[in-house]
Amino acid sequence: MNILPVVVGIVVVVLGILVSIALHEVGHMVPAKKFGVRVSEYMVGFGPTLWSRKRGETEYGLKAIPLGGYVRLVGMMPPAPAGTRPGNGFFSRVIADARDASVSEIRSGEERRAFYHLSTPKKLVVMLGGPVMNLVIAVVLLAVVFLGIGMPTATTTVEEVGADSAAATAGVQAGDEVVAFDGAPVEDWSQLVGMINDAAGEQVPLVVERDGRRVELTVTPEPAERPLTDDDGYPVTDDAGEPVMVDGALLGVTSSVERQALPVSSVPEAVWLQVSGTAHAIVTLPVRIYDAAYEAFTDAPRSQDSVMSVVGVGRAAVDTAGAEDYSVLARVQLMLMLLASLNIALFMFNLIPVLPLDGGHVVNALYEGARRSVARARGRTLPGPADVARMMPVAYVMFVALIGVGAVLMIADVVDPVRLF
Q: What three-state secondary structure class fits 344?
């Protein structure tokens, strides 16, 4: 294996992940600053700070562990409601400490710049800004892949003719472009395959274009089992990864493959497929984590759609960069699609409605807005900001759970990684 493409592939994917994280945080920071909230820190990564520089009132920096990032929005949590009695339990102290830390960041005279003073719509814009940025990144990457680079597509031009095949007997030659079959015009290769399957054992007219002129031939497709293909011409496989075979016919030719730009509609279609697939994966996450661990530590093969950690994404990048049977352009395309999938995953995962994820803050803002709407409708005094600090125990439990899940998946990705090829 040529080591240079592998190194380049790893660097590209790592930089892609860092840029995705950085832009996610930009999605939070820009609207927060626009609405007057003081942003004291913008950091990519966690752990010890490798580099930082302060510009204006914000410190920008890069930390040692590139597994996330954060922006520190001053005043995320309001002070304790009037009359609140401090508790003595562990979680009571956690809640009190979170409130105190949030309030301590607010400078004298800048109380109105605290995040908790924002209206519900503005809070939603700030908290959804990060996930939406990941969605935008995914759309841009898929647009580059589908509209710019193009996808390998089987054409109606014959690449090879099998010896002693029905096509060879009829006089079909490599380079012929199939124009019509059995009197019907041929628009694409998958359509031609369907026509051939329906004409098993029958003599049918075939029109090809050869050297700028049309040639009329007669072919008799040979009955045979053949792989079932989807609308795009790709083989359909069963749960074991084996091709699904169906009764059909063979002409004995292969098509030439060219890169062709897909229609603009293919981008939202691909985004929707990935969003819905990721949503299903999140809903079934406990089962999928168990399956990944079971497959990693038993003789069961690791499925290609298994959930992965960042280690698994890195291994996938290595596999992609080292795929010698693929051209450089094809490998670049696969890496861009890998990064697009990662950004879709970040978009969906951050919308899970629990703290410390963005979705938890979204739910809190909606709850706060609903309370104020009800009070406004009843002519009552509007309630103050929602007491986010009370959800800190949930955030702590979720944080520990995420660490545990990440550790299990990382071990699984080292022991038995997902194989793309």
A: helix
Q: Tell me how far apart the alpha carbons of residues 266 and 281 are, in angstroms, rounded to a whole number.
A: 22
Averaged pLDDT, 391-397: 84
- List the end-to-end C-alpha distance of the chain, in Å, as a whole number: 14
pLDDT of 228 > 80? The answer is no
Who contacts 328 (Cβ-Cβ below 8 Å, separation ≥6)?
5
Provide φ and ψ at 273, rounded to 5°: -60, -40
pTM assigned to the model: 0.81
CA distances from 280 to 126, 298, 338, 418 (A): 26, 25, 18, 19
| Integer Cα distance of 125 and 329 in angstroms | 38
Say what the pLDDT of residue 77 is.
86
Using CA atoms, how far apart are residues 375 and 384, in angstroms rounded to an integer? 11
Residue 49 pLDDT greater than 70, yes or no: yes
| Contact yes or no for 78/387 (Cβ under 8 A) | yes
φ and ψ at 228, to 5 degrees?
-75, 135
Residues in the chain: 421
**In the chain, what are the domain boundaries?**
1-38+113-150+262-421, 152-260
pLDDT at residue 58 greater than cutoff 70: yes
Beta bridge partners of 43: 61, 70
pLDDT band for position 343 (50/70/90)? very high
With 0-12 / 13-18 / 19 or more C-beta atoms within 10 angstroms meaning exposed / middle / buried, residue 413 is buried
- Decide if pLDDT at 314 tops 80: no
Residues 139, 175: contact at Cβ < 8 Å? Answer: no
Q: What positions carry a catalytic annotation? A: 25
User: Is the pLDDT at 407 greater than 90, yes or no?
Assistant: no
For residue 118, which of 29, 35, 40, 41 has the smallest C-alpha distance? 35
* 142: three-class secondary structure by DSSP: helix
Phi, psi at residue 128, to the nearest 5°? Answer: -85, -10
152-260 in CATH: which number? Answer: 2.30.42.10
For 325-351, b/e burial (b = at least 16 CB within 10 A) is ebeeeebbbbbbbbbbbbbbbbbbbbb
Alpha helices in 58-197 (DSSP H): 90-104, 120-143, 166-170, 189-197
Which of 212, 201, 37 has its CA nearest to residue 125?
A: 37
Band of residue 51 on the pLDDT scale cut at 50, 70, 90: very high
